[in-house]
Each structure stands twice: as C-alpha cells, then as structure tokens.
User: Fold these one by one.
Assistant:
Number 1:
Amino acid sequence: MSATAHRLIDQVARDGDDIVALAQRLIRIPTENPLGSVTAAAAFVAETLEGWGIRPVWHEPSPGRVSLVASLGPDDGRTLILNGHLDVVPAGDPARWTRSPFSAEHADGWLWGRGAADMKGGVTALLGAVRALRNADFPGRIVLALVPDEETGGRWGSRWLLEQAGLVGDGCLIAEPSGPGVSTIGQRGALWLRLLASGVPAHGSLSPYVGRNAVLEIIGILPGILRVAGRSGAFPAELQGILAESKAWMATLAGEAATAALDHVTVNVGVLRGGTKVSVVPDEATAEIDIRVPIGCSAAGLRQEIEASLAGTGVSVETLDFSEPNYTMPEARVARALAIGATTVLGAPPAFLLQWATSDARHFRAAGIPVVQYGPSGKGIHGFDEAVPVEHLALCSQVYAATALAFFDL
Ligand SMILES: [Zn+2]
C-alpha cells in the first residue's frame, strides 16, 4: 500500500473515539423491525454525512423504509458498494436486559444495546471509513448503501435498491458481524412457506362423522415436509476446504451438533395456528415453516417437491421468502481487496468462511455482484444483552478504508 493509503488509515485510527460516540447515538435511535421504520436513524446518518460534505440520496419506497445512498468518486471505473442495514430485531422484554437495550452504555470495553453488533456498530465503522475516503483520490466509485428491512427479508432495502433504483457494483462489502478475523462469503438458501388448510366447520360433538378438520389436515402433511430435513448438500470441490474450516469455526460458536446445519437441509415449524373453540371443527389452519437449503441443493427443487406432495390434499402453500444458496469465491476482487485491507491493518487476512444464516448478501449475489461480509463481532445478537467490543469499531473502520483502497489497486 502507498504512503498516502497508510496516512488515510492512520487518520481513521485517530478518529476512533468519534466512531464510538457515533455508534452510541445510532444505537439510541430505536429501529426495531417489525415495525421497521428507520426514518429517524436515516435522518441522523444523513445529517452526519452532510456535515462531512457528502450528500446522500434518500429513497423511501414504503413509509419508514428509508435507504440512504451516497456516492464518492467519479462515475467511471469500478464500483465498490459498502452496505449495512439500519434496522434491528426487536429488543424483547427490557427486563431481561442487564442494561437498557437503547442506552448504548460503554462499559468494560463493550458497547451495549440492541443493534450494537448487528449491525449499527458495523454501520458506524463504514461511516468512519467513508469520512476518511471522501478526501482520497481513487479511480472509480464507492457507494455507501445503508438500508432498512434486512431483518425481514430485504424487500424494501437492498433488494429494492438493486431491482428498482439501479444500484450496480463490481463488488460489495457488507458490515455484518463476523469478527475481525473472519469474513463470511457464502450462505444457505431460504425457503419460508405458509401452509393453509381449509376444512368444513361443524359441531365438535359430531366429529369425525360430520365436517373436515383443518388442524388435522395440516398435522397430516407435516411429517412429509419434515422428511426433507437432513438431506445433504453437494459441495463443489472448490468449497470443500472452506466447508471444513467453517464447521470448525461454527463448532466454537454454536456447538458441534449445530455444524450439520451448514451442509444439510434444516426445517423448523415455527408457527402452527388453527381453530377457534374446543367444540367447533376448525375450518382453517396454518403452519409457517422455515427451510434452509445448503449449497449444492436447490430451493426451487425442494419447493416443487413439496408442492407436488400437497396435490390433492386441500392444503395450499404460499412462499414467504425464497433464495437459493449463494457464495463468492476468495479469488473475487472484493475478497482479495479485503484480504489486503485486513493484512495491512491487522497483519493477517481473515479466514473466508460460510455462514449458516442468510442476509442481504443473497440479493447482491443474485444480481451478479460478488459479496464479502466483514464486521465487528458481538454477543447477544438477536438475544438479550447484545454488545460489541469497542475496539472492533475502529479496527473494522480501518480495514474498510484499506479494503476500499485495495479494491482500486491503491
Ligand atoms: Zn445483520
């Protein structure tokens, strides 16, 4: 890296305290999804960017679902997208938190609060990098795209920007929590289904001679759907080493038993509803099912198979969420740039691994854009007492700046 690049990274390091204060202010603006409005947080970020002389474009395709897109650099040449989501999952019962979920307390080297790790910490680290990069010369474009709606599928956020607002790029870095030593480059597909059974209502005292029970219809077809659980993915040779490493990493985070989820289909019956009264034969019942599909397995194929198995049963199926498994190889420019960026700041490249959850990365990859995810790690993500190590904020911010420069061969 050039001397100019090193100076820029040093500048980001010196601004580390500001980044922590910025993260605190962002955490204190609740953006729980559902309900999903990020308007106040987006306004705060827009004002912050404007204070640095950067004017973001405000997109609001649905009330409260605000995306901010800010471009740096000339329109020709390569484009690097820096992406983060402003929405957070609900905090749940505040009494279960040791510190108030929106207080953003800084204690014991941690910053506490809902979204601290997932991913207002990461968003703030991106902002820190953008602040320094705005004064740099690079032969291409850096597009900061901060979005809503990631926690509920991305329809109004990243997906909308890609499909409706002309967002394009040659690589994308998403600040999802990974920890400074890891970058996630692949994920399983998601197939969320809602099954709806219609019955024929009758007096409960006449069942089963009269009426048709919708609850029993649903219960009858569930075992068939659960049979797809445990089916193996077929990993290409190029990913075998990464799969083995990912399993070892996952074992440390979620336990040995959980690692099977990386290369097998998982099925969760998350919601089962039906009936109105004990003495009435239910005329309607629903089940919502979360199926995750490993690399080498087809989500579309599974859906077809399930639809075929329901033929003639009186149970209909609706797709709530759908994506195929997807990944980016470590040879992609954005991954190589991240390896250089992390090596410059931390002395070593991150391990490129597979995640077991899904994220907005799928929308970018579906649009043909290679994606790496890299951001501050944390604890309590989607649980109680979420927190991010404060030192990760400045470190990741420096890595982002260095990665952006490396993306343009600077
Ligand atoms: Zn996230």
Number 2:
Amino acid sequence: MADTCNIALIGQKFMGRAHSNAYLKVERFFNVPVKPVMHTIAGLDLISLAPFADRWGWKKYGTNWKDVVKDPAIGLVDISTPNHMHAEQALAAISAGKHVACEKPLAGTLKDARLMKNAAARSRRSKTFVWFNYRRCPAVAFARQLIQEDRLGRVFHVRARYLQDWGGPDTPMSWRFQKKYAGSGAHGDLSAHIIDMARFLTGQEFVEVLGAMTETFVPDRATPPTSRKTGGRVTQKKKPSRTKVDVDDAVAFVARLEGGTMATFEASRVAHGHQNDNTIEINGEHGSLRFSFEDMNWLWYYDARDEKATAGWRKIMCTSAGNHPYAGAWWPDAHIIGYEHTFVNMVADIMAALGGEEPIVPLPDFADAYETQRVLEAALLAAKHRAAVKLSEIK
Ligand SMILES: NC(=O)c1ccc[n+]([C@@H]2O[C@H](COP(=O)([O-])OP(=O)(O)OC[C@H]3O[C@@H](n4cnc5c(N)ncnc54)[C@H](O)[C@@H]3O)[C@@H](O)[C@H]2O)c1
C-alpha cells in the first residue's frame, strides 16, 4: 500500500489552482509510491478560502501560514505566493522539518535565494523542489533525451525567448510590477523559465553574461481600488491614483555556456501577438531542435545528416507511450495534453522522489534553482553596469 504525505498549500490564486488540480489528479493517472493528501490550504482571504477548499477538496483552510507550516500533520509545504514570501515561508517550513515545493523564481532576490539554498543544504529531513514545470512537457523531456543521445553533437547555439503581451499600459498595478514583491519583472517571471530550460536541455551551466538590457515601457500603472469599511458599510476609495513601476517590462541578454555555447535570451510582457510564447531552439553540429509552448505537444527536429534532397524539419508529435516521457500516463497517441498536465507530471515526480524512486526527468531542488537565480542576477548586473558579468563573480 502506498504511503501518504499531507500537503499544505500556501496561495490560492493562479498557481494555487494549478497545484490543487495536480494533487487532485495525480493518482488517477500515475502509480505514485506516496499519495498526496490535500490537507490544508492557506491564503489571505478568508471569505474566498472556504469555497476554494470545498471546490478543490482541501480538508482544512486558514489565513495564518505560520501555524499551518508548524502543524505536525503536514509533510510537504507548497509555496505558491508572490516571490518576496518564498524565503520566509521556505525557511519556516524547512526549520519545521517539512519537505518544500516552491514556485519559481526561487526568490525575488539572490540574497533570499541563497538563504533558501543554504537552509536546504543544512537540513537532514527536508527535500526541496522548485516548480519549473516546463521541464515536464513531454516534448521538452524528449528533447533532452535526444541531446543526451548526442543527436545534435556539439551544441553551438541556444536561442530562447519567452514573450507575453498582457502587460500593456492598461494593465493595473499588481505585485508583479513592484520590486519589493517580485524582485524583477519579466526577467524573474519569464527569463527564469528559459534559463532553467537552457540548463536542463543542454546540461551546461552558464559561464558569462556578455551583455544585457532591460526596459520599463510603462512607468506607472493605475492603482487598483481598495475597499474600506466605514460604519459597517464597505466603500471603495474614490480618487484614481497611479503607482510607480520599478521593474522591467522586457529584458534581453547574451550569454556563453560551458563548452562555448552561444546563447541569446529575450523576455517581454508587452510583445503583442505572443501570449505565452515560450520558445527555445538549439542548434548543434549534427542538427537542431525547437520547442514552442503554444504548440507544446510537438517537438521540431532537423537532422543535418539526412540526404539533402529530402532533408527538412520533422514535426514530432510527442504523445507516444513508451517513446515520449510522460505520454504513457495520459491518453492514446495524438490525444494531446495541455498546461495543467505539466503540473500533474511534476507532482507525480515529487511523489516518486518522496517514495525513494527516480523521477522521470530530474527535479530541480533549491541548489539547482539557485544556479538559475545566479544567472538572473548576472543579467541584471550586466544591464545595470552595461558590462559583461562572469558567473564566477556571483556567489
Ligand atoms: N510555474 C509557472 O508556470 C508559474 C506561473 C505563474 C506564476 N508562477 C509563480 O507562482 C507564484 C505565485 O504566482 P501566482 O500567479 O499564483 O500569483 P497570484 O497573485 O495569482 O496568487 C498569489 C497568492 O498568494 C497569496 N498570498 C500572498 N501573500 C500571502 C501571505 N503572506 N500568506 C498567504 N498567502 C499569501 C495571495 O492571497 C494569492 O492567493 C509566483 O512566485 C510566480 O512567479 C509560476
């Protein structure tokens, strides 16, 4: 009989829903050695927590995450809160001896990320995981397999972009546009994913960021209305106001990886026509691979050793059980999957790791995610000083 692990999830909005769905579904599709039990959901808003718990099947709910983290019944704390909360919540969870699954980026700042990495390294009991979920698209996991089989030979180029378009001038202020909560803008939010992807696919670490630029196109944003209780009545604050943005809307940087790989990265929240365009292309001496999340079931492969007359990009549908990682857990061939499946795949791997089994592809822990955070920091410093930054300078 499988063991169980009681989960406490902190945060109940976007990622709160994605993770809840993953815990709910995982056992229906995977044989996991440890079953997640949806024990407690913690959030800020008591009024919406009760219906949230009811809808997703959380047994308990509460607004004090500190009590939840200390609850002896909890085995794993899942952190789905804004970036500035990650360190405090992860440190509390680790000191209470819990396993921790934290959303990306590991933290808003390198300092916070370092505290988290060090606490995880010191702990004898806690296993740590970071939700770089795109590793678990079958097409991405398969691309890594092809690179490991040396299908590309020496890797020459990594060309990655993560473009969205929701951050135009009409988008109101939120934690995502404020440094004290987010750390950075499109960079920590989106570059974090493509840096992780580049490291995961090539197996290479970054050596140097040679140049970078960040831009804030929208300098201030409408402050969302706040409600106030006066004399038992809830009133909306009337006067419209604007709040300064102090993070980037877009970033671009150039880097060198181990082995001399030349890599370019671009992230934006204001690139109209690109809604969730997380695309990475890798060119090597024998061929190329390309993945694009908006067509996540496909991997593009070009084999330069094919005969010239018929050579061309192959569009591989990565839904074949036994051939493509994770595909066997889902539907018959060509019955495609989506965003939410990447989170279910990740929970399956976390539960495998807690049960002493190997995940289908490697899980990023705090030490691994810290390497991505160092690259984020190097790019920010390169942009600030208009100078190259060696990763050896970022401790
Ligand atoms: N892996 C991905 O694809 C992906 C996608 C989006 C966001 N994220 C990451 O997930 C994290 C959360 O992002 P989101 O989009 O879910 O944000 P969100 O704004 O939708 O939700 C944040 C939640 O955190 C709660 N919260 C904030 N402070 C809290 C506190 N002190 N105690 C308890 N709860 C608190 C809020 O009430 C809210 O429920 C961020 O780190 C973000 O970078 C990852």
